TrEMBL record:
Annotated NCBIfam families: PRK12745.1
GO MF annotations in UniProt: oxidoreductase activity
Similarity-based family: Belongs to the short-chain dehydrogenases/reductases (SDR) family.
The protein's name in its UniProt record: NAD(P)-dependent dehydrogenase, short-chain alcohol dehydrogenase family
Keyword Oxidoreductase: yes
InterPro entries per record: NAD(P)-bd_dom_sf (IPR036291), SDR_fam (IPR002347)
SUPFAM superfamilies: NAD(P)-binding Rossmann-fold domains (SSF51735)
Record bears the keyword Calcium: no
Pfam families: adh_short_C2
Lineage of source species: Bacteria, Pseudomonadati, Pseudomonadota, Alphaproteobacteria, Rhodobacterales
UniProt entry keywords in alphabetical sequence: Oxidoreductase
Length: 256
């Protein structure tokens, strides 16, 4: 085996599962995470097991900060020292609409899952890395999955945009702190991706993509994001850290 291993949060479906599959194909041992030990999580584990790598289920709520260290210890006891953390777990707004009507509950939920949880899970992961002797031949990395909405406003889900903008800044903070530890940190910012979260609106965005909203006339697939995440985590962009990868088919390229 490669000696590489990754915890991918929110990996029982969607972008997270696609990332876990892509990482497994690069030889990573994988910890699959979801909030509960349910059928969906178990099915994801079997999907990864079929790739012929070590895999373990890691059911925990990423917003439970007190569970982070114990869960990382449990994962490492089963698949070995983690080299990679992919912070993918995320939520959307509780109800789309005018920011004048956004609720405190929806705002707090977005911040708790999309911003606070990955910041402190990264902190716990990084403390464990720094405290131990590491094989210098192994690439160590953190990949945060934020959103094009870290840059571009979507008025009907303002609190989501705020949470992703803050998460994008967290990526830069950790890149600065962990550079001297030889840990690379990246921020993948997906655009229009067909997932369970976007299912209610993806059809209309697909039409807009064909009409020119994106430079490639299609919406993205979770596998597109998985390939990007795996390439970053595998060190295929050497001598880079702190980058935000606009995985949006050129949607945010300024045009006249």
């Amino acid at each position: 085996m490669s000696g590489l291993s990754a915890l991918v949060t929110g990996s029982s479906r969607g972008i997270g599962l696609a990332a876990a599959v892509a990482l497994a194909r690069e030889g990573f041992a994988i910890a699959i995470n979801g909030p509960a030990d349910d059928d969906e999580l178990r099915a994801a584990v079997e999907t990864i097991r079929a790739e012929g790598v070590k895999v373990v289920a890691a059911p925990f709520d990423v917003t439970d900060l007190g569970a982070h260290d114990g869960m990382l210890a449990e994962i490492e006891a089963k698949i070995g020292p983690l080299t990679t953390l992919v912070n993918n777990a995320g939520v959307g707004v509780m109800q789309r609409g005018d920011p004048l009507d956004a609720s405190e509950a929806s705002f707090d939920r977005c911040l708790a899952v999309n911003t606070r949880a990955p910041f402190f899970l990264t902190q716990t992961f990084a403390r464990r890395l720094v405290a131990r002797k590491r094989d210098p031949a192994l690439f160590h990395s953190i990949v945060n999955v934020t959103s094009s909405n870290a840059i571009a406003v979507a008025e009907p889900r303002g609190e989501y945009c705020v949470s992703k903008a803050a998460a994008a800044m967290s990526s830069k903070v950790w890149a600065v702190r962990l550079g001297r530890e030889n840990v690379a940190v990246y921020d993948v910012q997906p655009g229009l991706i067909a997932t369970e979260m976007t299912a209610p609106v993806i059809a209309q965005y697909e039409e807009r993509a064909k009409a020119g909203l994106t430079l490639f006339p299609r919406v993205g697939q979770p596998q597109d994001m998985g390939g990007i995440i795996a390439a970053l985590a595998s060190g295929k962009l050497p001598y880079t850290t702190g980058q935000a990868i606009s995985a949006d088919a050129g949607m945010l390229v300024p045009r006249f």
